[in-house]
Amino acid sequence: MNKAADISTKKLISLAPNNWAKWVTGIPDIVTGEILNTEFQWISRQSDVVIQAESPQYGKFLILNELQLRYTSEMPRRMRAYAALAEEKYKLQTYPVLINILKISNSEIPTSFASNFIGLRAIQDYRVINLWEVDVNIAFETPLPSLLPFVPILKGGENESTIREALRMLRADQQLNQLETVLAFFATFVLESTLVQEIMRWDMTVLRESPWYQEILREGQARGEVRGIISSIETSLEAKFGSDGLELMSQISQISDLEQLKEILRRIVVANTIQDLRNVL
């Protein structure tokens, strides 16, 4: 199996934009229109999706969706910038939403940006949705096909039977079946990789096609080769194995060979236990 797939954030949201908009805004009678261009002068990000929407109460407005693999401290400032640029380009009020995928720590994630410089204030509120706090039944009952690939990391979605049902629904729809590599990637966070391989019925090397694995790799490379890959390894270990995973960092941080570090990052994806990684090291 090796599929060329459009598995961008835009593709995910476009599967059922009305249901997505109702979910992120809580407005039951909302109607979505065009998914708009997010090239804001010098800023263009594939994880941003701007939807034109309308409701009887609020009229026409924009929904700015930012789907983030892992929350970073830069996000409040970015949400302020993206909202302002969207409003400037399309001349409509904007409802910004930050959707965080992987839980990294127990620290509270802010829902606004605020600064006060020489007596001048800047404030931007935005909604925060943490996928690990979202009930898995929403994906099946609403329905929200955009959430099906994330079922393993939703609240209550870690069960094998639930993951199998999400896979069945993905494979039954031609528009959705390209997304199974995403489902498989997140399934490795909650099930043994051998079981994931059995469920998917293909070789686990296909996980390298997952956009979220590629995103982890790109994040590391963008931060500067060896140091960047080590940083990505650290956050991936914490996301998958918690504090037990971080215990390996003292050993990994001593490695300077780039290809060896990339191989460790790949092994984290398919590792069942911390002991599996210790054996690799």
SS element count, helices:
13
Radius of gyration: 20 Å
**Order of the strands making up the biggest sheet:** 1-2-3-4-7
Global shape: globular
SSE arrangement, N to C: HHEEEHEEEEHHHHHHHHHH
Q: Structural class, from helix and strand content?
A: alpha/beta
Q: pLDDT below 50 for ≥5 consecutive residues: which ranges? A: 1-7
Distance between the termini: 30 Å
Q: How much helix is in the residues?
A: 40-55%
Short description:
With 281 residues, this protein is an alpha/beta fold. It has 13 helices and seven strands.
Word description of this protein:
- By secondary structure, this protein is an alpha/beta fold.
- The chain has 13 helices and seven strands.
- It has helices at 9-14, 17-25, 75-90, 137-141, 160-172, 180-187, 193-200, 211-222, 225-241, 243-246, 249-252, 258-270, 274-280; strands at residues 31-36, 48-55, 59-70, 94-102, 112-117, 120-125, 127-130.
- The strands form two sheets. Strands 1-2-3-4-7 form a five-stranded mixed β-sheet, sandwiched between helices. Strands 5-6 form a two-stranded antiparallel ribbon.
- The longest helix is centred in the last third of the chain and has 17 residues, at 225-241.
